[in-house]
Amino acid sequence: MNFIGRFTVVFVFVFSSFGEVNSQDLSWNEIANGVWKASVGEPEDISLLKAADINPKMEALQRLPKADFPLLKSEIKAEVIDGKTYLRFPLSREEQLFGLGLNFKTVHQRGRIMQLHVDHYGGKDDGRTHAPVPFYVSSKGYGVLIDAARYITVYAGSGVRVDAKDKPILRDRNTDKNWNSRPYSDAVEILVPTTGADIYVYGGNAPIEAVQRYNLYNGGGYIPPKWGLGFTQRVPTLYSQDDIIKEAEEFEAHDFPLDFIGVEPGWHSMAYPCTFEWDVTRFPQPEKFNSDLMAMGIRTNLWLNPYVSPVGSLYPKIKPLSGTHTVWNGIVPDLMLPEARKILKTHFVENHLNIGVSGYKIDEVDGYDFWVWPDVAKFPSGYSGEQMRQVYGLLIQDMTAKWFREKNQRTYGLVRASNAGASSMPYVIYNDYYSHKDFITALINSSFVGVLWTPEVRASKTAEEWLRRMQSVCFSPMAMLNAWADGTKPWTFPEVESAVRDVANLRMQLLPYIYSTFSQYHFEGLPPFRAMNLVDGFSFDATVTEGALDSTDNPYKMAVKSEIKDQYMMGDNILVAPMFAGENERKVILPAGKWYDFYDGTYVGENEIITVNPGLEKIPLFVRNGGIIPMRPIQRQAPEPDEKVNLIVRHYGDAESSFVLYDDDGISFDFERGAYSKVDIVIEKDKKGNLNGTVSKPEKGKPYGYNKKVVWKFMTK
Question: pTM surpassing 0.85?
Fold first, then answer.
């Protein structure tokens, strides 16, 4: 037999051995309203959703509109070859793709190639990021999740098959100026380097419905404690308990909001790797330290990375239950083992939670490759270094969150790595990358994949940059100044101290609105901060006042079709358009319907692009017609459970409307057992056409932190 003959035999053997799982062999089961699942090959017993230990909100899913399976099942292909899973999903010409992880530079993901790999973000949207979620959302209103704890490669409409149904036009580069080195592709193709995977498809009538289903299936979004939505300052690394108390007093002296303080690595007796034990020189009385801060209305949040130091008391207990490789000479607990989790829980609860610690900042669970354990590492649970890399951030979020839940105490913290299934986790992602504009793009992208992101403030070269960053962070899931490296304060630039305080106070005033928005995340799966592509009325088929929609010179149409990377929605009603250092003005794309300036109620436009020049002191904010914004008076800290404040209700525009104001005790999980209030704020016109407002009464005995008197402000001029 010649060489060619031998090769042919081998080729046939490979394909007959592993075969193709044809589309008719895929069994698509509707496991919830509008959610379908199919299994390909032999899925591993570790996965992203299993690591997150999700608890689907089936009743909430049932309340969503019915949805049909969104793709042609016959065009979904799957095969397992040589121990690897190959998947293919159809893609039409007009579709755009969103999601595929926490990306910092791009919102549109079609045409890209990504290896979804938990890592420090390295400045490229190549899939290596803090939350490489293998979930994509189509502009046609559906979503697809690949639930596998592996480094997944996605060809998001970038590879052209010989047998493609919708082939790109053949062009001659010599003579055709429209020749393209990256021709059109009609498929999303995905390589999962293992023997099988579970696939989920989320239907919908619009992209936001697919995202809602994804979030609700993963347990619904997390409602932070009220104090978690206040302002937080992370102190320098080696601050002592006396230094931190003094810092808290400085915030009060400057009349600046402060609800919780981040205690950085110096609280450990050793860090990198960590002992998780209080350093007796800097923190001789940790229980008193926590109680003294609590008496000031301030919670503590402790920094850690999960690598156990040989000099700590945990080391001999956890060593037999740890991986084969170290990180900074610290062992890596195998969090897949119940024994390991039990040992950690005993230590952390006794030494932290029981003395008043309110949360954690979980660092360095993301990468780089030369920092964390290598892929050749093994863990006593039997899982590989690669698998553990993809789920470790989920595992530690889940583990620590359960400690607080068992105490019926809500927490809110920070983490460096996450993945699919994290919607219900009480953590916000952060990193060491520091591009202001890219931070906003990440905030936008977080809304597609069920994670939260903070564009934290650390340092700035100028007062202008300082203020602009502060404005952005006050309109994000966590208003955080991270001074661990250089000791910056909100008043570091005295010339803008007043403006920084004003925007921080505005965030505190907006807590009723923000808290209600997070309740939507929990009960309805709606992201609290949303990409414009998830907003009703934001599409190029909307009616515009000038120019035909099919005209290539229609600026609104072209703007909406482009990547929108620098504006987003906070809840249903507020459009946020951050300013960046060096900018005196910016363009804002307004969706369908009338829009009004947040500050004075001036009408600004509809279905169009506007240019705004807000001055240095303001971040541009706009409210949709009929938008209701519940607020409260300026207070430095979030209200306590038994505290009642005045309710201020703003209404914008001339439309009748309503808003559901949510409230609970702000600290516990009692709301999951029905201990919460939802009252209706309704704006209606009387016979003369005048707008009037009413607030329904809260249910008797349910938590409600507002006085009966309501201050109404009809903003539109």
Answer: yes
Tens of pLDDT, residue by residue over 288-306, are 999 999 999 999 999 999 9
Burial class (CB in 10 A: 0-12, 13-18, 19+), 6: exposed
Measured between alpha carbons, how far is residue 325 from residues 273, 380, 704 in Å?
13, 12, 51
Q: Which of 340-354, 555-569, 608-622 has the lowest mean pLDDT?
A: 555-569
**Any alpha helices (H) in 554-641, and if so which ranges?**
555-561
The pLDDT assigned to 26 comes to 87
Phi then psi for residue 16, to 5 deg, are -75, -25
Contact 651, 628 (CB under 8 A): yes
C-alpha distances out from residue 533 to 262, 401, 566, Å: 34, 31, 12
Helix (H, G, I), strand (E, B), or coil: what is residue 456?
Answer: coil
Strand, coil or helix: what is 48? helix
Task: Give all strands of the β-sheet with 645-651 in edge-to-edge order.
Answer: 628-631, 645-651, 706-714
* Cβ within 8 Å of residue 458, ≥6 positions away: 434, 481, 482, 483, 485, 486, 488
For strand 20-21 and strand 77-81, is the pairing parallel, antiparallel, or unpaired? Answer: antiparallel
Q: How many C-beta neighbours within 10 Å does residue 512 have?
A: 25
Predicted local distance difference test score (pLDDT) of residue 310: 98
Interval 220-235 mean pLDDT: 98
DSSP 347-382: HHHHHTGGGT--EEEE-S-S--TTTS--TT-B-TTS
Round to whole Å and give the CA distance between 593 and 605: 8
Please say whether the beta carbons of 553 and 544 come within 8 A: no
Tens of pLDDT, residues 337-394: 999 999 999 999 999 999 999 999 999 999 899 999 999 999 999 999 999 999 999 9
Please state the rounded mean pLDDT for residues 305-330: 98
Tell me: pLDDT of 255 over 50.
yes
Residue 346 DSSP SS3: helix
3-state secondary structure of 638: coil
Given a contact cutoff of 8 angstroms between Cβ atoms, the answer to whether 341 and 242 are in contact is no
Residue keyed to tokens 């914008």: 652
Q: What CA–CA distance (Å, rounded) separates 135 from 95?
A: 16
Q: What is the DSSP string of 4-36?
A: HHHHHHHHHHHHHHH-EE-GGG---EEEETTEE
**pLDDT attached to residue 145:** 98
Cα separation of 142 and 596, whole Å? Answer: 32
Question: Which 3-state string (H, E, C) describes 232-243?
Answer: EEECCCCCCHHH
pLDDT at 4 (0 to 100)? 38
